[in-house]
Amino acid sequence: MTNVQPSGVSASLDREDLLAIYELMLLARSLDERQWVLNRQGKAPFVISCQGHEAAQVGSAYALKPGKDWALPYYRDLGVVLALGFTPTEVMMGLFARAADPNSGGRQMPAHYGHRKLNIISQSSPTGTQVPHAAGVGMAIKIRNEVAGKIVDDSVAWVSFGEGTSSQGEIHEAMNLAGTHKLPVIFVCENNGYAISVPQRQQMGVEDVADRAAGYGFPGVVVDGSDPVACFEATQAAVERARRGEGPTMIEFKCQRLTPHSSDDNDRTYRPADEIKAMKQQDPLITFAAHLKAEDILTDEKEAEIRERIKKQVNEATAAAESAASPDPSTLFDHIYADNLK
Ligand SMILES: Cc1ncc(C[n+]2csc(CCOP(=O)(O)OP(=O)(O)O)c2C)c(N)n1
Ligand SMILES: [Mg+2]
């Protein structure tokens, strides 16, 4: 296991990239906050937040090629799907279960992300089911190259899950398969220290989930999940390794969950108030903005301009999705019985 130290600089990221990453992080936060407002107004059924994970999500997804690589994100990954090309309106279509929702045409719960054009594979509600799917995608890529006798497809499968989920059996089976066959899979664990109300010390006997990768014969790295540049760098290294046919990597991002588990949870019953207060000091939006300002990449004027643009996007997305059509009842059985497959 290797520890990747926060770097703040990357040879592959220029000033425009760093500003784009910051803007995506802020867009994810703003859309997330709007979803909570809509939930508390009784308009949106369920919210599960990316707040506190934005740096890990955007930094990591920024190392992928949307539409070429395969992404199997989990429910918290709003920052990932935005970085891969989801529009704010598409996100809101999912929240309101509208017909135009790219995830499932309004059939899935919110935050079960999927997008055909972007190669984002829809996930199921039982946690972790996307992880063996990712190993299967990696196996398909490998077989395609074996049949051709050379690398004709150097795409990778990127899959994410929480630390609680990382203890489930199928995650270990998927990592074993990927390690055995050197599959091009990036296993991303967003470790926020809680599985709903259960703290990590009651979930597993190790401190670093990435330690487990050694048991399957591939590298495991631990990265500060509040530093988007370090998250990008670690993912880029894993992607390059996978593209070269050298096999999988596990990356563990140490994140903070700044909200309750979901809009149906009250974390004040199990998290001390001072723990939440301390976490907010480490908010990646604040620390990354401070870093960019210290480097003269972000100015107060630029920040105001970005915030204004995002406010407009979030307002427009909300209005478009609120007024959009629900799925037509005549499509109820689509995708359920063989003769209705689309
Ligand atoms: C197989 C299964 N067991 C339990 C649940 C209920 N559940 C949903 S999210 C969750 C916690 C997962 O925690 P973690 O993997 O750490 O991810 P986090 O939400 O903290 O990002 C649980 C227990 C579920 N959806 N599926
Ligand atoms: Mg967790």
Structure description:
- This protein has a single domain, classed as Thiamin diphosphate (ThDP)-binding fold, Pyr/PP domains (Rossmann fold).
- It is an alpha/beta fold.
- Strand 3, helix 6 and strand 4 form a beta-alpha-beta unit.
- The protein is globular.
- The strands form two sheets. Strands 1-7-8-4-3-2 form a six-stranded parallel β-sheet, with helices on both faces. A two-stranded antiparallel sheet has the order 5-6.
- Bound molecules: thiamine diphosphate (TPP) and magnesium ion.
Q: What's the domain count?
A: 1
C-alpha end-to-end distance: 45 Å
Element-level helix/strand string: EHHEHHHEHEEEEHEHHH
Task: Bin the helical content.
Answer: 40-55%
Which hetero ligands occur in this complex?
Answer: thiamine diphosphate, magnesium ion
Task: Determine the CATH superfamily.
Answer: Thiamin diphosphate (ThDP)-binding fold, Pyr/PP domains
Radius of gyration computed on alpha carbons: 20 Å
| Sequence stretches where pLDDT stays below 50 over 5 or more residues | 1-6
Name the shape in a single word.
globular
CATH classification class:
Alpha Beta
Tell me the CATH architecture.
3-Layer(aba) Sandwich
Summed over residues and divided by their number, the pLDDT gives a mean of 95
